[in-house]
Design a protein that fits this description.
The complex is a heterodimer of chains A (402) and B (176). Chain A is an alpha+beta fold and 402 residues long. In chain A, 48% of the residues lie in helices and 13% in strands. Chain A is built from 13 helices and 9 strands. In chain A, strand 5 and strand 6 form a beta hairpin. Chain A is globular and about 75 Å long. The N terminus of chain A is likely disordered. Chain B is mainly α. Helix content of chain B is 59%, strand content 8%. The longest helix of chain B is centred in the middle third of the chain and has 32 residues. In chain B, strand 3 and strand 4 form a beta hairpin. Classes of the chains: A alpha+beta (402), B mainly alpha (176). The interface between A and B is large, with 43 and 42 residues.
Chain lengths: 402, 176
């Protein structure tokens, strides 16, 4: 038998500057508080309301809210770049990703409102969120079309009385949808890609219906079904009304998704790293063969963490390569499933009964497979990147070219 | 009650008679109707009850384990049927997802695994555990085609989770 040596998943240090390393340390200090909360959220997702004073939520608020609208500043403010988002979400998700997804704040809608909204819309949206804990949603996915933004069918039609628009349709698998106080819905105003709009929706308005869906795991996300029946949308709630159609609706959806996707990958990886650590704690000695399997897993975790930081750094420098971004999310999700299945095996018979936290992580990790696009979609995107000669970096070694 | 839990109860009755078959670890799984004493367990939400007892006779456990593999394969066949219907109704770029080669080959891989594991000589615990692991991999492949609907408790993803947990309790223990 061979002792299982220390974790190899602290990779990527060289990609972080000193403030980001300090930020990661702060997150790692507060993340353990979330372990018990994650178990509580698995039993009752609404239990989040009793735990919002935990320091982790302050850090999440800082990284998810634009600086000018932050009200819960921490001891050390930081620039909420994509790299910071990745650092915070990875470290906090080591505690529990359910807590991240259950947290109040602008979440995924941040990017679309911040990018598309005019000054008034931004002030109203983020001001409303800052006024006490508020949950939000990002309504893109539809029952028959998934998250294919170009094919969505939810309709935005002029109101017969000439006052704004009416929203009709259905969204499914929307995080926090049934519990939110405000959110963004993508809908079709006219045919074609530029006929899609992003509108701010208030769930208190007549015609809005939201219900929680019974999901296998990651229950903190409070994945929901939303139905809109003649929900009135005032004209000033159409985001980006001051921009040309090609720079609002679909543009806003893709803008937000691509910038948040590394964060989702980081969440999956944070919990995967926690699974590796849990395995090491509860099974400190392994056979040579099993140690090799765990070492191989941790090497992959380190590689994917590095790749996530890499694409996040690119985004911060204005390089948004959807093929590489999708690839890291896909690989992080696959690693999570591999890690939980391996841990359940190595922890022995009935491990999924005797280790309730592992059983929860085992379920949670399956969500990352489909969130922000399935692995099959990202595989196809990688192929498109190959076709366009846009997947490998120019700087990546190629002995035949070099 | 979940379809899987109901079939699990039937398997208990066929192999264990009046008392549910307890695994070597002492854990026993059945429907919440059969095992109602732990209503707060996370799996009770899925219709799966968890109990403890004296391990059943090894011969009974082996018969039960083989039955679990058959049940898992049936679940996957149902999953394929569900996926064929679901993917025929969904379209992307004007094409039903079922017409995509990547989808078709993935469904074929699941079907191949179901047939192949049915012919494996699973006469010892280690072979049964390997067959279970292969079915878990096939199930995950199937679920990857279903997107977010794979994560609904009421869909194939809910019952497949129960099959994975049940294998973790009854098939893994035999290989240990």
């Amino acid at each position: 038998m061979t002792a299982l040596f220390g974790s190899r998943v602290h990779a990527g240090d060289e990609l972080l500057d000193e403030p980001l390393r300090r930020l990661r340390e702060r997150c790692r200090e507060v993340a353990p508080d979330l372990r018990a909360l994650g178990m509580a959220l698995d039993r009752d997702p609404d239990a989040i309301v009793d735990h919002l004073d935990l320091p982790a939520f302050q850090l999440l608020d800082q990284v998810l809210t634009p600086p000018e609208f932050q009200t819960r500043l921490g001891a050390e403010p930081f620039d909420p770049t994509c790299t910071a988002l990745v650092v915070v979400l990875e470290a906090i998700s080591h505690g529990d990703p359910n807590a991240v997804l259950a947290a109040p704040g602008p979440s995924l809608s941040r990017e679309v409102v911040h990018e598309l909204g005019d000054d008034t819309q931004r002030a109203e949206y983020f001001g409303r969120i800052a006024d006490g804990p508020k949950w939000t949603f990002f309504g893109l996915t539809e029952p028959g079309k998934g998250s294919a933004a170009l094919e969505l069918e939810t309709r935005l039609t002029p109101s017969p009385d000439g006052d704004g628009f009416l929203l009709n349709g259905e969204k499914r698998y929307i995080g926090n949808g049934a519990r939110a106080e405000v959110g963004v819905v993508f809908c079709r105003r006219a045919p074609g890609p530029w006929g899609i709009e992003a509108v701010v929706v208030d769930p208190a308005d007549p015609g809005f219906h939201g219900e929680l869906l019974p999901m296998v795991g990651l229950r903190g996300a409070r994945i929901s079904r939303l139905v809109f029946t003649d929900v009135r949308i005032p004209a000033d709630r159409v985001l980006g009304r001051h921009r040309p159609p090609s720079r609002r609706g679909v543009y806003g959806a893709l803008h937000a998704l691509l910038r948040f996707r590394p964060g989702l990958a980081a969440m999956a990886l944070g919990q995967t790293r926690a699974v590796c650590d849990y395995l090491r704690t509860h099974r400190p000695v392994l056979s040579t063969w099993d140690k090799s399997r765990v070492d191989g897993l941790e090497e992959r975790v380190a590689a994917v963490l590095r790749a996530i930081l890499d694409v996040a750094g690119d985004i911060d420098h204005g390089v948004v390569n959807q093929h590489r971004i999708g690839a890291v999310k896909m690989r992080a999700a696959q690693l999570g499933e591999r890690a939980t299945i391996l841990a359940a095996e190595l922890l022995g018979p009935a491990s999924l009964i005797e280790h309730p936290w592992l059983e929860k992580a085992y379920r949670d990790q399956r969500a990352f497979e489909f969130m922000e696009g399935t692995s099959n979609l990202h595989r196809l995107s990688v192929f498109q990147g190959l076709l366009k000669n846009d997947f490998f970096r120019e700087s990546e070694p190629d002995v035949f070219r070099d | 009650m979940s379809a899987y839990a109901a079939h699990l109860d039937m398997l208990h009755r066929r192999t264990g008679g009046d008392s549910p078959v307890v695994s070597a670890s002492g854990v026993v799984l059945g429907s919440t109707g059969t095992l109602p004493d732990n209503p707060d367990h996370p799996l009770a939400r899925f219709g799966l009850g968890v109990g403890r007892g004296e391990p059943a006779d090894p011969v009974v456990r082996a018969e039960f384990a083989s039955g679990l593999l058959r049940l898992h394969r049936s679940l996957l066949r149902q999953g394929i049927a569900h996926a064929m219907t679901h993917l025929a109704e969904r379209s992307s770029g004007g094409t039903p997802l079922l017409d995509r080669q990547l989808v078709q080959t993935a469904l074929a891989d699941v079907a191949l695994e179901i047939r192949e594991t049915a012919t494996l000589p699973v006469t010892d615990p280690a072979a049964r555990w390997r067959a279970h692991q292969a079915l878990v991999a096939a199930g995950r492949l199937l679920l990857s085609l279903l997107g977010a609907s794979s994560f609904l408790v009421s869909g194939p993803g809910g019952d497949l989770h129960l099959a994975e947990v049940t294998g973790n309790v009854y098939l893994h223990e035999e290989a240990a």
